[in-house]
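In this supplementary section we document a worked example of the pipeline. Step one takes a protein sequence of length 104 as its only input; no multiple sequence alignment statistics are reported here. Step two produces a three-dimensional model, which step three serialises into structure tokens for compact storage. The input and output of this example are shown verbatim.
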Amino acid sequence: MVLKMSFDEPLYVSPGEIQDTLTIKFKNPESFVSVETGQHMQPAILTIPIKKQMPESEFTKAYISVSEDLDATLKIIFWIVLAFNIIFDGSRAMDHFVELINAL
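The serialised model returned by step three reads:
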């Protein structure tokens, strides 16, 4: 089961250091049966911490897209630096890497 929640004021959710919690009480937990075990859902009450939220906007979508692209770029840079350190001795590797960056 997947639940998606949309908050009217997402910036009010978990604004401080301590996360807010969401408590869900199922009125008929026997209606939920595990396909794997055949047992009913237990417990009938779930308590889940809620992470800080961001509003759904074009800015948020752009922010997430940029952060994902940045993550991929940083991974590539890591492998390049590692290769330079393997190819060249450690002390000269960064000099070569800086020269390469300056050449761009």
